[in-house]
Amino acid sequence: MKGQILEALRERTHYVSGEALSHQLGTSRVSIWKHIRGLKEDGYVIEASAKGYRLVSSPDLLLPYEFPGLEQRIHYFPEIGSTMDAARELAKKGAGEGTIVIAEVQTRGRGRLSREWLSPEGGIYFTLVLRPRISPAYAPRINLMAGIAVAVTIKELYGLKAELKWPNDVLIEGKKVCGILAEMDAETDVLNFVNVGIGINVNTSLPRFEKTATSLKDALGREISRKKFLSALAVEIERWLPLLMKADLLEEWRRLSATLNRDVRIMSLGEEVTGQAMDIDATGALLVKDKAGSLRTVLVGDCIHLRE
């Protein structure tokens, strides 16, 4: 109902009476009043007068009713330990594909190998529940898909060149702006679900001494609408998800890659592999030509771009 009220108010620049809203939305004037009071508590500035109600401004919060068509799938938290943990519990209880857990702030956000992912106000932090019908061996493609969706969204909205660093980072001018973490629940040959956590530095201000990370705010020199970005990203994910097992996905990742054709060092399962990143295979593994000229297949690991 809050979403419907906002939509009705945004359709008009003048005041809308409570009676007109109740008639349009099929509810009582008392219900309208209660929901508008709730919207004000959420941070919306709504003027009320004898003429009715008028929306003055909206907070840049990622509230479910800001995303028409998705609101029933969104679980929103002003603050949470980790969206990954919450999504895992929901997935285990049978939450459907497309369930989204969003938080304004995470107190225990994490990246690969349980490393801390700082999640202050101003970023976008969410986990998406997916149930693709693919072999667990191809689950790494989901990281590739998510990275492509983020990079394409950045380019299309703001004209920034976003590149992909294998296996799960999005870069702007060589600095990390987004991290992606996929955790799966699988049996030998059956993938039950994959939860994809995406953390994006949007309007966050990073310390001056931070040399390896950036934010969209820093790259653009201004703050942007997180609601607009997340809405566009959701569309991109919907566009690329059906291509998960298609060659087009791998080709797009190659096109956006900052890793291929450069020297890398990868720490993988206690082993260090150094050489030139040549390609990715059908599963999303990185193919590296080592110093001896042998082609090594690296399934997972921390990838360091060496200086060119």
Quick tags:
single chain, 308 residues, Arc Repressor Mutant, subunit A, SH3 type barrels, seven-stranded mixed β-sheet
Quick take:
The chain has 308 residues and is of the alpha+beta class. It contains eight helices and 14 strands. Helix 2 (18-25) crosses helix 3 and helix 5 crosses helix 8.
What does this structure look like?
There is one protein chain. The protein has helices at residues 2-10, 18-25, 29-42, 83-92, 140-158, 216-220, 226-240, 247-256; strands at 45-49, 52-57, 74-80, 100-106, 124-130, 162-165, 169-172, 175-186, 191-200, 263-268, 271-280, 286-290, 295-298, 302-305. The protein is 29% helix and 30% strand. It is elongated. Strand 8 (175-186) and strand 9 (191-200) form a beta hairpin. It folds into 3 domains: 2-57, Orthogonal Bundle (Arc Repressor Mutant, subunit A), CATH 1.10.10.10; 64-256, Bira Bifunctional Protein, Domain 2 (BirA Bifunctional Protein, domain 2, 2-Layer Sandwich); 263-305, Roll (SH3 type barrels). Strands 3-4-5-9-8-7-6 form a 7-stranded mixed beta sheet, sandwiched between helices. A 5-stranded antiparallel beta sheet has the order 13-12-11-10-14, with no helix packed on it. It is α+β, with helices and mostly antiparallel strands and 308 residues long. Helix 5 (140-158) crosses helix 8.
